[in-house]
Amino acid sequence: MGFATKAIHAGQAPEATTGAVTIPIYQTSTYVQEALGRHKGYEYARTQNPTRAALEANLAELEGGIAAHCFASGMAAITTTMLLLGSGDHVIVSENTYGGTYRLFERVMSGFGLRFSYVDTTDVEAVRAAFTPETRMIFLEVPTNPLMAVADLEAIGRLAAETGVRLAVDNTFLSPYFLRPLEYGAHLVIHSTTKYLNGHSDSIGGAVISARADDAERLGFLQNAAGAIISPMDAWLVLRGIKTLSVRMERHEKNARCVAQFLTEHPKVRRVHYPGLPQHPQHERARDLFSGFGGMISFETGSLAAARALLDNVRLCALAESLGGVETLICHPASMTHASVPSEQRDRLGITDGLVRISVGIEDVEDIIADLDAALQKV
Ligand code: P1T
Fold first, then answer.
1. 308: domain range?
2. Burial letters for 232-251: b for 16+ Cβ neighbours within 10 Å, e otherwise?
3. Cα–Cα distance, 146 to 152 (Å, whole number)
4. What is the CATH number of the domain that holds 162?
5. CA-CA distance, 198 to 204, in Å (whole number)?
6. Residue 33: what are its φ and ψ, rounded to 5°?
7. How many A from CA of 15 to the centre of ligand 1?
8. How does residue 45 score in pLDDT terms, banded at 50, 70 and 90?
9. Which among 6, 31, 42, 46 is annotated as catalytic?
10. pLDDT band at residue 301 using 50, 70 and 90 as cut-offs
């Protein structure tokens, strides 16, 4: 079956009692048991919920994993992934990730004895050089938020296999429609379902998809034991969103290519980060790894004043954190999504005060470009 067919049908057989074609929202906390020790496989809704189970079956299929576990947010998914590790373990991380991921690692997980090294994962030799005897996981964001660097996933997948270290990939930016990291040797795929999977900016959630039976079993245990589960309503919203993932992703990408080209040619824009542009440093790699370049772009306006003038003057593009919804969102990473990254580190990475990030929506692209053009004139 093709991707679009699986997106619509996987995990979603018509409901047995009524034939409802969409899985119901099982809004219940518990399930009556027929007799002591005899039940229908459902005991308590932190442990099992049919709406959540349908989403998990769907995501496992789309990413090509053996199981998925869904959580209350992307951060809850990453937190639970880290609970696979123990005190003293070392993790190699893409040097540029979502600010919340960096904050979780540095300000929460390091307090429990985990250690993190941030390296340029576009270079497999940098990853190799960061190994210590305690290294237990490599954590990549592909492409990175917000600088759109593309890790050498193929080589890092081989390195993980050679060394027996788990490879986890945050695939939020591309979704399984454009990239399936398990095909390159990743063991775990993470999503903020809040973004493209849900696609309509009306839900918060997260997911971890496993390739290995031991990870799947442990994550199921941790999902129940730590309890950061997605709600049935949110699971249902994400399932509904996924039905149109393939058509949305095509349109996001088509629009993003036009917007990236427009920005490249604009005299007020100094540099555009979009893997679909031939001048992107990992463009060839992105072409090999991805079946599309996605809808996320960041670009350099040169200064905080220029970024502010642009952001204060957009009308259609919404000034907001988040991404992956049908509407175009625009933000200032240094003060918004990446404010928790220390300023020296932001400077070193290139998350400057003049950097603006845009999540290109699926509106008519002429309207998005006209809005950006009018706002850039105020810069
Ligand atoms: O917001 P939440 O659902 O908890 O997901 C966290 C998260 C995880 N991974 C990536 C790559 C992300 O971009 C995010 C959240 N990012 C934003 C809110 C943002 O505007 O970048």
1. 245-376
2. bebbbbbbbbbbbbbebbeb
3. 17
4. 3.40.640.10
5. 8
6. -105, 140
7. 32
8. very high
9. 46
10. very high
